[in-house]
Write a structure and sequence with these properties.
There is one protein chain. The chain is about 40% helix and about 25% strand. The protein has about 280 residues and is an alpha/beta fold. The chain folds into 2 domains: about 1-20 and about 65-145, Dihydrodipicolinate Reductase, domain 2 (2-Layer Sandwich), CATH 3.30.360; about 150-275, no CATH class. The protein has a 4-stranded mixed beta sheet. The chain is globular, with a radius of gyration of 19 Å. Belongs to the class-I fumarase family. GO terms for molecular function: 4 iron, 4 sulfur cluster binding; lyase activity; metal ion binding. It comes from Candidatus Auribacter fodinae.
Length: about 280
């Protein structure tokens, strides 16, 4: 049995959020460079160049790369051989968010009640997902997502007869119908299988995977390639203005499902993909 202090979890959440909301990860900036080599639409090229400048200035001035600093999804993989010591883990996660909101000048974007709409003032609470795993470590991932792209996400309970073509249709329609509202170029997480609630969590978790890799399951890897090719042939383009660069990354997670079900979920991130992971 290994002891992990919940105060360390608080500190990790604060540090990760403060950094990932300001500093674009190399995958994003590298993707813009590669897109500029192949993008044929002059308007799209101009927008990609503006994004590069925005990211450069955010890092230089230590300001968020987007004004919508998001609703914070936090994924906790808790080793079953870990003993947590200190205040309640979720309280400490939210305390880390409060600290980052103050220190990194993040916009307060959370309301206490979905009907009354009163702002909490500190960007809490987080949407926390727990998973008990083998081992004696705690793996924490943060994924702050703005409303523009989150609102364009969707879930579909398909019939098994809809098959692979039905899956492709759901994903492509989500991107095309979103137009510029989800702020392309996009990073896209797709979940397939499970149940109504499980497939949505799979799609969001897929956004934490490396986008420069492919699934180790051959037919899923093939689907990932087919989907991103279809999406980039849609001519949605950066900010919905047309072009070859609608998505820069797409990953798929799948799991077993009922014999009569084919759940599909699409979780969309704008170009400002903000994520970080730390192991304690």
């Amino acid at each position: 049995m290994r002891t992990v202090k919940t105060a360390a979890i608080r500190d990790a959440v604060a540090a990760m959020l403060s950094k990932c909301t300001i500093d674009a990860e190399p995958f994003i900036t590298d993707s813009f460079e590669k897109a500029l080599e192949t993008e044929r639409n002059p308007v799209a090229r101009g927008f990609l160049e503006q994004l590069q400048e925005n990211y450069r200035l955010a890092g230089q001035k230590r300001l968020p790369i987007c004004q919508d600093t998001g609703c914070d999804a936090v994924f906790v993989e808790l080793g079953q051989s870990v003993c947590l010591e200190g205040d309640y883990i979720e309280d400490m996660i939210n305390e880390g968010i409060r600290r980052a909101t103050k220190e990194a000048y993040l916009r307060a974007s959370m309301v206490k009640d979905p009907i009354k709409r009163g702002n909490t003032g500190d960007n809490t609470p987080a949407m926390v997902h727990y998973e008990i795993v083998p081992g004696d470590t705690v793996r924490i991932s943060v994924l702050p997502k703005g409303a523009g792209c989150e609102n364009m996400s969707r879930i579909a309970m398909l019939r098994p007869a809809d098959g692979i073509e039905g899956i492709k249709k759901v994903v492509l329609n989500a991107v095309v119908e979103g137009g510029g509202n989800h702020c392309p170029p996009l990073c896209i997480g797709v979940g397939i299988g499970g149940s109504f609630e499980k497939v949505a969590s799979l799609a969001k978790a897929a956004l934490l995977l490396p986008f420069n890799e492919r699934s180790g399951i051959p037919h899923i890897a093939e689907l990932e390639d087919e989907l991103i090719t279809m999406i980039n042939e849609s001519d949605v383009g950066p900010q919905g203005l047309g072009g070859d660069t609608t998505a820069i990354g797409l990953r798929v997670l799948s799991c077993p499902t009922h014999i009569a079900s084919l759940p599909v979920a699409v979780n969309i991130s704008c170009h400002a993909l903000r994520r970080a992971t730390m192991v304690l």
